[in-house]
Amino acid sequence: MKSGRPLASARPEAGECAYNLFRNQQRPEILCAVPENYPIPSFVSSEGWAYGGSLQSRDARPPGFCDRAATTGVRFNGFYLFQVTAAEWSAKTARQSSMSEVVSSPSTDAGAPIRQHFRNALLRLLAQHSSPDQVIEYVSRSAAGQNAAETQYADLLAALPFAVYTTDATGRITFYNEAAVALWGRRPVLGRDRWCGSWHIYSLTGAPLPHDRCPMAVAILEDRQVRGVTAIAERPDGTRVHFRPFPTPLHDANDNLVGAVNVLLDLGAA
Hints:
With 270 residues, the protein is of the alpha+beta class.
């Protein structure tokens, strides 16, 4: 997501458009729909709004959403504000036994504020092209108060421009994005592969580096951040790439180790 207005002259009709939806935290009946290929408005990036999921072209429209009004709003503003009225909310609830996150009543879950902060933070990071350490700072902050927080925001982590993956406290990989797949040249088996998704790892001297001694393993086993390391990852096809890892342990509200997150910077072919 980039700042500034889109340059394309052709604007899709609302019915053909996929949106990111945001909810006003003070007035949760007010929603903002932003086309997926449009920049996030600055007011939405504030703490007063929470990411509410995506709305695809084939999805049922939330009550109060008007395709014609959305087309007009996006054409002139780059976003569409709409309101879900109490009557529409009640009628929608009566028609559906399971409401989507976007149109449901405000959550009473104690962890909701943490998740909302995390979503807003990641969206700001995407817009600002932030550094790996900034991403990790927000991921780590969000993990306090909930277990395996990273699995709930795979859609946002997947959009980051660099490789990201997470593990549980035993080092088993629980999530990775497509940038990590590109760097590794393979797809690790979630819940089975441990420490890192690289096929083989080497030090800069060319010596093999066992997975259980890689930077992510050190971060988990010693419960500390690892910085200032550069290594070489070998893909199954034999190609190699220099990378710099940023492994960081994740803790819950009681400071118990619950896993780790790692951001990998691709430094080019080895």
